[in-house]
Description:
The chain has helices at residues 107-118, 134-146, and strands spanning 2-4, 9-11, 17-20, 28-37, 40-49, 55-57, 68-77, 80-83, 87-91. The chain is α+β, with helices and mostly antiparallel strands. It folds into 2 domains: 2-91, Sandwich (Immunoglobulin-like), CATH 2.60.40.10; 107-146, no CATH class.
Amino acid sequence: MPLAPVDEALVSSLTPTLSWEVGPLAQHVYVSIFRRSAGINHEMVFHVMDPTGTALVVPVDTLVSATEYSWNVVTENVLGFAYSQPRVFFTETSCPADFDENGVVAVIDFFAFLSAWFADDPRADFNGNGTREVADIFAFLAAWFAANC
Ligand SMILES: [Ca+2]
Ligand SMILES: [Ca+2]
């Protein structure tokens, strides 16, 4: 059964830790994450069979910000499959310096921002004043250095 995050949790990380417990007779364990909206599961974004232990860290590049997901744990034993109740969680609105939205702030985010800036991409208006200007680069840099996500 899933333990954490709790149902309907708002998670601040795009690499949250999932934990669960399984009965002693389980021979196989399958953990799956689905993108979800309006109460309906869409594509599976993550699946692992027989993870080590009863917790895992969702890998980078699996989740995106401001999105609803559900996950479940399926166990298999001699009697067949047992499906946990699905658990829902939400990812927080992005960390703005994570420009490519892969869950980590890295040098590549700075280059992605600069590319957008030179391409006059609306997202390059980092300070949101409606104009793409040099100040946006400084605003991005400030967020990038301050990022703790
Ligand atoms: Ca990134
Ligand atoms: Ca601006």
